[in-house]
Amino acid sequence: MKKILLTLSFSALVLSAPLYAAGDAAAGKAISATCVACHGMDGNSAAPNFPKIAGQHEGYLYKQLMDFKTGKRVDPTMVGMVAALSKKDMRDLAAYYAGQTGSKGTTAEDQLALGQMIYRSGNATTGVSACAACHSPTGAGNPQANFPQLSGQHATYTASQLQQFAKGTRANDAGSMMRVIARKMSDAEMKAVSEYIQGLQ
Ligand code: HEC
Ligand code: HEC
Question: Domains of the chain (ranges plus CATH)?
Answer without folding.
Answer: 21-98 (1.10.760.10), 109-199 (1.10.760.10)
